[in-house]
TrEMBL record:
<dbReference type="InterPro" id="IPR011990">
    <property type="entry name" value="TPR-like_helical_dom_sf"/>
</dbReference>
<keyword id="KW-0998">Cell outer membrane</keyword>
<keyword id="KW-0472">Membrane</keyword>
<dbReference type="Pfam" id="PF07980">
    <property type="entry name" value="SusD_RagB"/>
</dbReference>
<protein>
    <submittedName>
        <fullName>Putative outer membrane protein</fullName>
    </submittedName>
</protein>
<dbReference type="Pfam" id="PF14322">
    <property type="entry name" value="SusD-like_3"/>
</dbReference>
<dbReference type="GO" id="GO:0009279">
    <property type="term" value="C:cell outer membrane"/>
</dbReference>
<dbReference type="InterPro" id="IPR033985">
    <property type="entry name" value="SusD-like_N"/>
</dbReference>
<dbReference type="InterPro" id="IPR012944">
    <property type="entry name" value="SusD_RagB_dom"/>
</dbReference>
<feature type="domain" description="RagB/SusD">
    <location>
        <begin position="376"/>
        <end position="466"/>
    </location>
</feature>
<keyword id="KW-0732">Signal</keyword>
<feature type="domain" description="SusD-like N-terminal">
    <location>
        <begin position="85"/>
        <end position="188"/>
    </location>
</feature>
<comment type="similarity">
    <text>Belongs to the SusD family.</text>
</comment>
Length: 494
C-alpha cells in the first residue's frame, strides 16, 4: 500500500506544495488541501473504471491480444499477481491517505481560525474530504470485500486494527456520510460557486444510499433517495446522448462527476482522464488527426441483443459504438438478421468506427465526438468529464427499495421508473417489480462503474453473469488480494 504522511506533499492546482510551507493563519489558503483531496480522486488511473466494471454482463474486456489477465478477469479467472489488481489497490489507498491528510491539514487551519466564517468553511471542507473518503472506501470494498478502513494519518495504528468486513465498511461509510451532511452545501454540485462542481449534501446522501444498498438495508435506501428526490433540485438531462458528452457536464442530473479540462487551449497544461482504453483502435474521425483508442472495454453482445429486444433506440445508440464486424456478428443470429436502420458504424456526430482486431464494439458513454475536441487537442476524449453518480440511478435505487418492501415518501416505484423511461421515449410501465427495475438499470446504467455486476451479485443472480460461455459462482464475487499486498500487509489470503 502506498503510504503518505500528513507532512508529505499536498496537491495544489498544477503543482506540489509542502505542508511545512503552509501558514495556517492564512485562512484563505485552506482551500488548497481540499483541492488536493479532489485531485487525488480525479486523478484516476485508466485501469480503475475498467476493472471495476469488466465482470458485468453488460461489458466484455476487449483488448484481444493484450493484457490477457484482464480478459481472464472478465471470465472470472483471477491471478492475484496481475499488476492491475495491485495498481488499483495502490491507487485507491493512496487516494484515501491523501484525502485524510488533506482533512487533517484543514483541521490545522481551523485551529488557528478566529472568524466564524472561516470556522464554518473549515467544517465544510473537512466534510467534503469525508465524502471523498467514503467514495474511495466504497469502491475498494466492492472489489475486495473485507478491507482496511483508513480514518487517520496514523497508518500503523489503522492497520493494526485489521481488516473490517464488507458490512462494517459499508456501515462506516454510511455513518461517515451522516457526520458530513450537516456541514455540506444544500445545493446541487453545479450550484456551488466556491468549488465548482464539488460535492454537496446530496452527493453524501447518494453515497450513503449506495452503501446501504450493498447492506440490503432497503428502508434506508428509500429514505435517503427519497430525500434527494423530494428536494426537487435534480432532474434528468433532456438528451440522454448529450448527457455523456461535454454538453452534459455539470448538469442538473449529476450528483458526482470527476472533472477534467484542457482549458480550451490548443496546447499547454491539461487535466484529462485517459480515455484511450474505451476508444476504437481504428476509426475515421470527422476531425482529421484525432487519436484512436486502445480497443478495451467492449459492450457485450448480450447487452446489445437485450436492448434490441426492448426496442431501445436512444440508449442503445448512446451506449454502443458499432463496427461493421460487430454488426455482422449480430446479424449472424437469424433472430437479428434485419436490424433497425440506426444500427450503424457511423455515430450521430459523423465519426466512423472501422473494424479493428481488439473488439467489435466500443463504449459510447466514454466516447467524445472528434468535433467536440478542443482544436489542437488530439487525445481520445481529451478534457471530457467522467460521471460517477447521476439522478437516474437515484430514481432507480428508490424504485428498487420500494419493490423490496420499503415504504417511500417520494412517489411510487412506477413513477420513478417511468420518469427514467420517458426521457428516452420508452412506454410507461405499471406494477413495477424488482426484476423490472433491474432491467431498467441494465438499460440505463450499462458500462457505468460496475453497477450491473454489483447488482447481480447482491441479488445472487449468478445465472445472469453466466453468459457467453462463462460460469459464475459465489466464489467469484470478490477479487483476490494482490500478492504484492499479501507480502507487505497482514491480510487474510482466504
Amino acid at each position: 500500500m502506498v503510504v503518505f504522511s500528513c507532512t508529505d506533499k499536498l496537491e495544489e492546482n498544477d503543482g506540489q506544495l509542502a505542508a511545512g510551507d503552509l501558514d495556517f493563519t492564512i485562512s484563505d489558503d485552506m482551500v488548497l488541501p481540499l483541492i488536493g483531496g479532489y485531485s487525488a480522486v480525479y486523478s484516476r488511473g485508466w485501469e480503475d473504471p475498467l476493472l471495476i466494471g469488466v465482470r458485468g454482463d453488460d461489458v466484455n474486456a476487449g483488448g484481444l491480444g493484450d493484457q490477457p489477465q484482464f480478459a481472464d478477469t472478465d471470465l472470472f479467472i483471477y491471478d492475484n499477481g496481475f499488476w492491475m489488481y495491485n495498481q488499483i489497490w495502490e491507487n485507491f489507498y493512496g487516494d484515501i491517505v491523501r484525502i485524510v491528510s488533506s482533512r487533517e491539514t484543514i483541521q490545522s487551519y481551523k485551529d488557528f481560525a478566529v472568524e466564524d466564517e472561516d470556522l464554518d468553511k473549515a467544517d465544510q471542507y473537512m466534510a467534503e474530504c469525508k465524502v471523498l473518503s467514503g467514495f474511495t472506501h466504497f469502491q475498494m470494498s466492492r472489489l475486495w470485500g473485507d478491507i482496511f478502513i483508513i480514518g487517520t494519518s496514523d497508518i500503523t495504528a489503522e492497520l493494526d486494527k485489521g481488516v473490517k468486513t464488507k458490512a462494517e465498511v459499508m456501515q462506516y461509510i454510511s455513518d461517515l456520510m451522516d457526520e458530513a451532511i450537516p456541514f455540506l452545501p444544500d445545493a446541487r454540485p453545479n450550484e456551488r460557486q466556491d468549488v465548482s462542481g464539488g460535492v454537496t449534501k446530496y452527493t453524501a446522501l447518494a453515497i450513503k444510499a449506495l452503501a446501504n444498498l450493498e447492506l440490503e438495508n432497503y428502508q434506508a435506501v428509500a429514505d435517503v433517495t427519497g430525500e434527494i428526490i423530494n428536494s426537487s433540485k435534480f432532474n434528468l438531462y433532456p438528451d440522454f446522448y448529450d448527457l455523456f458528452k461535454k454538453e452534459g457536464e455539470r448538469s442538473n442530473e449529476n450528483l458526482f462527476e470527476l472533472q477534467y479540462s484542457d482549458y480550451g487551449t490548443e496546447s499547454g497544461a491539461e487535466n484529462s482522464h485517459e480515455y484511450g482504453p474505451f476508444g476504437p483502435s481504428n476509426w475515421t474521425p470527422v476531425v482529421a488527426g484525432a487519436s484512436e483508442g486502445w480497443g478495451f472495454y467492449e459492450p457485450s453482445l448480450k447487452f446489445i441483443k437485450f436492448m434490441l429486444d426492448r426496442g431501445e433506440t436512444t440508449r442503445l445508440i448512446t451506449s454502443v459504438n458499432f463496427t461493421p464486424r460487430g454488426i455482422a456478428e449480430i446479424t449472424s443470429d437469424p433472430a437479428y438478421a434485419t436490424l433497425p436502420s440506426f444500427v450503424s458504424n457511423v455515430t450521430p456526430d459523423g465519426d466512423i468506427f472501422n473494424d479493428y482486431s481488439r473488439a467489435k464494439f466500443a463504449s459510447g458513454k466514454h466516447y467524445l465526438p472528434s468535433i467536440d475536441l478542443t482544436p489542437g487537442r488530439t487525445r481520445y476524449g481529451s478534457g471530457k468529464n467522467l460521471i460517477v453518480i447521476r439522478y437516474a440511478e437515484i430514481l432507480l435505487m428508490y424504485a428498487e427499495a420500494l419493490t423490496q418492501g420499503a415504504s417511500g415518501s417520494a412517489g411510487s416505484a412506477d413513477q420513478a421508473v417511468n420518469t427514467v423511461r420517458a426521457r428516452v421515449g420508452m412506454p410507461a410501465l405499471s406494477g413495477v417489480t424488482t426484476d423490472d427495475v433491474m432491467d431498467e438499470k441494465f438499460a440505463e446504467l450499462a458500462m457505468e462503474w460496475g453497477v450491473r455486476y454489483f447488482d447481480m451479485i447482491r441479488l445472487n443472480k449468478y445465472e445472469e453473469l453466466s453468459y457467453e460461455g462463462r460460469t459464475f459462482t459465489a466464489e467469484d464475487e470478490l477479487l483476490p488480494y494482490p500478492q504484492a499486498q499479501l507480502d507487505l500487509l497482514p491480510l487474510d489470503n482466504n
